[in-house]
Amino acid sequence: MAAALAIPTPDFDPYASRIAHRAAKQGWLKWAILFAASFGAILEVIDVSIVNVAVPDMQGNLGATLSEIGWVSTAYSMANIIVIPLSAWLGHRFGKKNYFIFSLIGFTLASILCGMAVNLPMLLIARALQGLGGGGLLAKAQSILYETFDKKDQGKATALFGLSVIVGPTIGPALGGYLTDTLGWRWIFFINIPFGIIGIWLASLFLLRDNPADMKKHEDVDWWGILLLTVGLGCLQIVLEQGEQEDWLDSAFIRNSFVVSAVSLAFFVWHELRVKHPAVDLRVLRHRTLAAGSIYSVILGIGLYGAMFAIPLFTQRSLSFTATKTGLLLMPGAMASAAAMIAVNILMKRLDPRTLIATGALMTIGAMLALTDINPSTGTGQLFWPLIWRGFGTAMIFMPLSIATLGSLPKEDVPSGAGFFSLTRQLGSSIGIAIITTMVQSSASTHRAQIVSRIDPYNPAYTERLQGLTSSFMNSGSSPDLARQQAIGTIDNAVNGQAMVLSYVDVFWFMVILFALSIPLLLCFKRSDPTAIQDVGEVH
């Protein structure tokens, strides 16, 4: 989320100037607008972080596999990817206030559907609808602030908006854990209802009405581009999420999904390079810094969101943490990110963004290396500091990466470049979760097979363990045959548990390698001037 706070200012808009003038005349109104816009945006930010700690409970309650439950997060991210290219047109076509309120209404209603879901397909459809509603909230909030505040107050407004958005990831995990343990996972969605109603009321009351004359009624929309992107990425997600479960290309379903994805994405690229008003302007990739920054953004999305999906699974499934305990474990890391963002805002005025990105990557690598030491007896003390350093590291990458990627672009290419950059971050998020779920399942199977291959009746350690457990169960009143079955079952559970822990170790090693390979990309960036990019503006 932090990346969205360092984005380019669009070309001068006279209507935005009129809105700022109207708000400035009333003094207090512009700060009320800031509060209303920030309140709506924070709902979306909290929702991203609140869901992760409830995933194991959802999985058990809905009887889903790990790859299937991964779609709870992926569906939301994919819907964001779809709505990103549309959000600018929707804001211009219907007015930013109307679109912001409509997004809040859609987000709130979809939250109700999520909480009422009786099966996984219903939950995934509701999450996609929620993603469509939430996708416009953060971007439109920033756009509204850009139009409301004049140049001298934009810095202060941005700082206050940034601090409010930071609160989301800080309180989200702990709140989600508490609601899941006390009221059930459905309440992580129902909690959005009263706050959504308050947000709709605040937006209706304080946001200034758009001038109907400034709404663009006939602006072209690249519907074909959006359709091709949706089909291509949707089928790609199916391949990544379900490939392991369906034996990859041995399955006709996976083969067909792969072909449809490849063809759709190829036509998407061909179409976007020909159309006058593309949904995603791929022409801006001619700029080396944007191409490198977008690749880095995908990597960051995979590493950040993939790790935040994996850690709650590990603590709750392998360490038997409650959702509340997991949420409290994640909170200090989120607070570290908030503190780091404040520090980064100061450091960016003095240091080359590339230096901060490299430092953040090395800190993240160190944190992931520390997490590769996990085992079935790992406690909160062993997880605390790695998560703190991970929080610092990722925050030190987010904002400087935006500066390094967009700061050297020509002014006319900045809006398109920013839109593509934002899209890649969401793409990394959805791909990351798919990779993590696939890796956990396949690695667990591999490690189980390796462990079982070392267990045989002639292994003294195994024989001693089996006899000890059998005697223990017999002392508890079991017959010899039943005691032996119980002993074998206990050993089997231990093997499964160890295999699962080793699969998470593989995930963290994957993160280490991924971030290590990303560092050479910094050679593609030019030295950027942090003052070249304003903090508030229209992302899309």
How many distinct domains?
1
The low-confidence parts are: 1-16, 533-540
Percent helix range: over 70%
Give the name of the CATH superfamily.
MFS general substrate transporter like domains
CATH topology: Growth Hormone, Chain: A
Straight-line distance between termini: 15 Å
Structural class: mainly alpha
Shape: globular
The SSE string, one letter per element, is HHHHHHHHHHHHHHHHHHH
What gyration radius follows from the Cα positions, in whole Å?
Answer: 25 Å
Number of helices: 19
Strand proportion, as a percent range, falls in under 5%
Main sheet attributes: strand count, strand direction, barrel closure = none
CATH classification, class level: Mainly Alpha
CATH second-level architecture:
Up-down Bundle
Q: Count the strands?
A: 0
Care to describe what's here?
The structure is a single chain. With 540 residues, the protein is mainly α. The protein has a single domain, classed as MFS general substrate transporter like domains (Growth Hormone, Chain: A). It is 76% helix and 0% strand. It has 19 helices and no strands. It has helices at 14-25, 28-50, 55-62, 66-69, 71-94, 96-116, 120-148, 151-182, 187-190, 192-206, 223-242, 252-272, 288-318, 323-347, 353-371, 380-406, 414-453, 460-475, 480-518. The longest helix is centred in the last third of the chain and has 40 residues, at 414-453. Mean pLDDT is 82; it is low at 1-16 and 533-540.
